[in-house]
Amino acid sequence: MIENNQQYLIQLGQQAKQASYSLASLTGAEKQALLSQIASSLEANRATIIEANMRDVAMAKDNGLNEAMIDRLLLNDERLSGVIADIDNVINLADPVGTELESQLLDNGLRLSRRRVPLGVIGVIYEARPNVTVDIAVLALKTGNAVILRGGKETLQSNLALSAAIRDALTQQGLPADAVQLIQSADRALVSGLLKLDRYVDMIVPRGGQHLQRLCAEQATIPVILGGIGICHLYADKDADIAKSIDVIANAKVQRPTVCNALDTVLVHESIAEALLPQLYTHLCALGVTFYGCQGAQVIANKLGVAISKATEETYGNEWLALTLGIKVVSDIDTAIEHIRTYSSGHSEGILTDNIHASAHFLNQVDSAAVYVNASTRFTDGGQFGLGAEVAVSTQKLHARGPMGLEALTTYKWIGVGDYTARS
Amino acid sequence: MIENNQQYLIQLGQQAKQASYSLASLTGAEKQALLSQIASSLEANRATIIEANMRDVAMAKDNGLNEAMIDRLLLNDERLSGVIADIDNVINLADPVGTELESQLLDNGLRLSRRRVPLGVIGVIYEARPNVTVDIAVLALKTGNAVILRGGKETLQSNLALSAAIRDALTQQGLPADAVQLIQSADRALVSGLLKLDRYVDMIVPRGGQHLQRLCAEQATIPVILGGIGICHLYADKDADIAKSIDVIANAKVQRPTVCNALDTVLVHESIAEALLPQLYTHLCALGVTFYGCQGAQVIANKLGVAISKATEETYGNEWLALTLGIKVVSDIDTAIEHIRTYSSGHSEGILTDNIHASAHFLNQVDSAAVYVNASTRFTDGGQFGLGAEVAVSTQKLHARGPMGLEALTTYKWIGVGDYTARS
User: Fold this and answer.
1) 340-399 in chain A: CB under 8 A from chain B
2) Global pTM?
3) Domain B232-384 carries which CATH code?
4) How far is CA A123 from CA A14, A250, A392, A415, B267, in A?
5) pLDDT in tens, A44-85
6) CATH, range A2-226+399-417
7) Range from A100-104, A110-114, A257-261, B140-144 carrying the lowest mean pLDDT
């Protein structure tokens, strides 16, 4: 059985690699035509796709999944229309492939340039969101890459129907269907196997929680882009504008609490804690937020009669993904930075201050993918950053950091053209 | 013992990370002053360093190491002067840190830029070449990074003396000595431990053979830059200029056969094999080259009375690092490309041709770090490419590909500055 798994994966890998060679020479217009064909094919297969999704939903209900989970995997008429409409946005994005980054005539006689090219084959592991199947396939093809997809088992029927429609479109454009392949079994051993397929797969993007990220870091022999875990901080400095700071903190916490760039912990300089915290508690309580705090934060909350739990090492290391907020009073900016270095996942942090020295120090010393001055952590997002599309949000430092756009799906090769030139 | 190793590594990691925060805010001039101090310190400790190296050499002789190995680890007066002189070259290079890659005012009110910053902490694993200790430390410090070094056990005494001199210089500049740390034990378990130190180390660069590269790919939980293995090809197309091609092939094979960009296999279009191969054999035989070939190549060699072994799957997958050359006659350009895809390590390949269509097809379809038209594979080198310095030659596609200069030791962070700006 394990041997069969490996044979199956090697076959997927070989087919993907072979398909990637065809994709590498497509022009931008050819790739635009392919994406249009995919949109048409999804439209033509609408009934089949929605019927497949209904089977996934029925199975999920039978298995007792909760409402939130079922909502995540639901793909109704309206949502499918949204997925198809999003393809148009990608069609209109600039294609980075083929650009020559630099071109110079070297003293050794070589004309040297760096040409941007597709990565080749990308493996993506994700959870039970069928829209990701289309999003990722479209972004990969837009940049000339083949993909091997491994979605959540709860959406296997939906993903089969979606990928079949995409593969139809590839065939209709005279391209190899294996440019998009879905792993068609829920066997978990296939994930571990995929992570070691370094002969064929050039990059792994895991879109999932901490457990999946760790699994990939530990098992992959292929470069992995870790990300999507955001333990995010805002530090209200002694020179912060208190009323405006409360608005930014509330926005970062409340505007969409279930996503990775939502705020997890507020650090407050002790000299403004007495002024800021009572207003913050009142404001956020009314919005349904609950609190964990250090002793100083608890004392102030207790005076107001606001419920607050005791923060621990563990709570400071939580990504809440909910209307929960950690609060800590700190003695100075360096203590705040030290806290961030200890607990942050390297995603998004910000300082709230009117002091130019404090802001420069914070920007310099905080080492996260996105560092803000007087802005909500909620801005860390491909759309907000103007990238046009978002493959993932990387929290590692190599290749791509923060929101990843189309360019993160490409690499470059050095092109050297001589006239039968030898090295002296 | 294993627990002690882990404690030791965690301590190194914490100290390196802490040191990296101090380095992150240095200006270019401060880093130049540091490198000058390192050059002075190596000069001041010349006697100690050379004496330590003599102990390494004596030990190597006692252990029966061969002449080539001993020559590699030798650091005499002249070579140390060369190492010190090389620091001046690095001092004069432009410092990429602090550059803002783009700066734009977004519609959401945020002023957004990507600021180039040091990676943080770099782990480097290398073999018995003491000059690497200085080279890598200097390149890392130039870009504001801390390093943890693990050199070959044969040069431990030399490396201790060199790193002590570098750490002195750091202290004299008021910087933390732990910006440069050497693993002071030959225990192999420390390599595996270092590869899993992801809490503190941001990138691993293994400078060594296939075994080390594979170990890193399999065990590391930290992003690794694989590279330095070059199974390199030249394809002589049907439209190649035969006399000029022979010169380029000879250069690629003979000019320095022991390095990764030296040629391993020549692929020859069948329509020119009868014309090219006899001249190639004659020319290369005189230079001491021995051959492995396919049947077609053997037939031509036999006619000339040139000794040639039978090439196998295995020999085509060899990096020779010696005056040995594989030869294969192919029926067309796509067969040549297919051979390269099967056996190449993704380092350097080239086509020899006067045909513009063949060259474009080859450049497009061959997926290696460096792809050449009418040029020797020997050009793949940081110095030749004008990078000023070379950290390693990457054969993977993420972060850096091909010769890695100073920029490959940096990453970027997104900086967003608002006016207490919330996301709508």
Assistant:
1) 341, 350, 352, 359, 363-365, 367-376, 378-380, 384-386, 396-399
2) 0.95
3) 3.40.309.10
4) 13, 37, 13, 27, 33
5) 999 999 999 999 999 999 999 999 899 999 999 999 999 999
6) 3.40.605.10
7) A100-104
